[in-house]
Amino acid sequence: MRKLLPILLALFGLAAGGGAGFLLRPPPEETVEINPCGKDEAEGAHGAVAAEADPDAPPAHEYVKLNNQFVVPVVEDGEIASLVILSISLEVATGSTEQVYAREPKLRDSFLQVLFDHANAGGFRGAFTQSNNMDVLRSGLLEIARKAMGATVSDVLIVDIVRQDT
User: Fold this and answer.
1) Is residue 21 predicted with pLDDT exceeding 80?
2) Residues contacting residue 101 through CB under 8 Å, at least 6 positions apart
3) Which residues form the domain of 93?
């Protein structure tokens, strides 16, 4: 009985504290979304969704983030000089998310081939985030995405990119 009493008191205290915290929590604040880029580029809660002129109309596109990052080695003189890590999202027609996830292995394989070719051509050396380098990479990825998915894909977005030199 001596060992059971402290355990029961601890459980009672934990339950009472949790209940008091739940009942005394502050009311949720109203959030106001401010978009400095303009009204037509609003972001949704689960991925960015472009806002239409008519707020009741469904969005024309949705964004699908591919599950895993892409890791691309940059080889110089037969050795790995750095690694480039990218996160990619696709802008697709509304309702096409499941199609993208169903074909994701094919998309990932094709994207990796484009990324490896870009790395071998020197696209990730030096100032690799320059506008023209990124445009070349995006257009290559978009071309491959459209081959795999058709006109469902309207754009390829490079969400994150980082290079780690060794």
Assistant:
1) no
2) 64
3) 40-165
pLDDT per residue as tens digits for the range 23-82: 777 776 666 566 666 555 444 444 444 444 566 666 688 999 998 999 999 998 889 899
Cβ contact 89:43 at 8 Å: no
CATH of the domain at 106: 3.30.479
pTM, two decimals, is 0.63
CA distance 79 to 73: 9
Shared-domain flag, residues 83 and 140: yes
Q: Where are the beta strands (DSSP E) in the chain?
A: 61-65, 70-76, 79-93, 153-165
Q: Are strands 61-65 and 70-76 parallel, antiparallel or unpaired?
A: unpaired
Are 108 and 35 in the same domain?
Answer: no
Q: How many domains does the chain have?
A: 2
